Amino acid sequence: MDLQILWFSLIAVLWSGYFLLEGFDFGVGMLLPFVPRNESERGAMFESIGPVWDGNEVWLVVAGAATFAAFPAWYATMFSGFYLALLLLLFFLIIRVVSFEWREKGESTRWRTAWLWANALGSTGIALVWGIALANLIHGVPINSNNDYDGNLVDLFTGYTVFAGIAFVLLFAFHGANYLTLRTTGDLHERVRTAARRLALPATAVGAAFVIWTVVVAVDRNDKDVFPVVVPAAAGIAALAVAAFLVYAGRSVLAFTMTALGTVAAVATLFTGLYPRVMVSSTDFSNSLDVPGAASQHYTLAVMTVVALIMLPIILVYQSWSYYVFRARVTGEGVQLPEALAPPTGGSPAG
């Protein structure tokens, strides 16, 4: 396989891995204000992703670094054109990361509630921005003949791209609810199952509409044939439909597997519809960036391939081991309540 195609495919895999893993992290964050009923349950939800969320972020770093090294022209045009959107994304990432630590620094209910909502806002905002940003790659943005972005922030918002952002939010919320059914117990577990059932139909319907719309956009704006774009789209629709059925049937493990496959299929639909271009120009199609024109030299890609063959298996083994170690369900019993939030103790026993 040509190294340029290999690295385009590998970048698609890295983004798929990022959304597969961070997707349920974001989903858990979105559900924080709505599912738990007390501090112990809120602590359990934080605990369910606490040991793994930062490891999941590694996929974003690797995906960004791989794009920079393998396709520098793509990286330069995308990051300069999406500068304000990515600055907003960075803001959401920061407040979400900070919320994990700062929530434990205060004892008042108001302080903890504020950082809980910060995590929810950050999780929702990240999903929304990523959906809008990735959809713009295939829908098209103003690119001039010098491969420079020639638009503004408003140009990133169209009906399709905003719908893509909403689809990412719903998919991740559904994915996160299914993840929590595997990690929680007791009353919290039952409420999480209820949340998953409520999200099943909206997430499936919006997710299906999104991948179908993506196929239409690929054909209309990127000069693609329906095949092969329709293959991951059909797989994604089937996976989400099966996930919805399994949620109602109470098959939590299989439901989570299906939402994972649905998330990967949605990303695969975007990248399949995008190839052989990496960014479509909405002003003049001939200005679109393609894989050969945006790629690094062969030697650079060859060196990167050797490094990837060494490092990727190590990352996969380490992360798999982390998930194995922290596989047990969380109960919230190990969460130390601050004195201000702890339930009052009973009176002294009668003498």
Outline the structure in words.
The structure is a single chain. The protein is mainly alpha-helical and 351 residues long. The chain has one domain. The chain contains 12 helices and 2 strands; from the N terminus they run ααααααααααββαα. The protein has helices at residues 3-31, 39-49, 53-70, 72-81, 83-102, 109-139, 159-183, 186-221, 226-249, 252-274, 291-294, 298-325; strands at residues 277-279, 289-290. It has a two-stranded antiparallel ribbon with strand order 1-2. The chain is globular. Mean pLDDT is 90; it is low at 334-343 and 345-351.
What distance lies between the first and last C-alpha atoms, to the nearest angstrom? 83 Å
Gross morphology = globular
Instruction: Average the pLDDT over all residues and give the rounded result.
Output: 90
> Can you write the helix and strand succession as a string?
HHHHHHHHHHEEHH
| SS-derived structural category | mainly alpha
Low-confidence region ranges: 334-343, 345-351
* Number of self-contained structural domains: 1
Q: Sheet with the most strands?
A: 2 strands, antiparallel
* Total of helices: 12
Rounded radius of gyration (Å): 22 Å
Biggest sheet, spatial arrangement of strands: 1-2
Task: Count all strands and give the number.
Answer: 2
User: What portion of residues belong to β-strands?
Assistant: under 5%
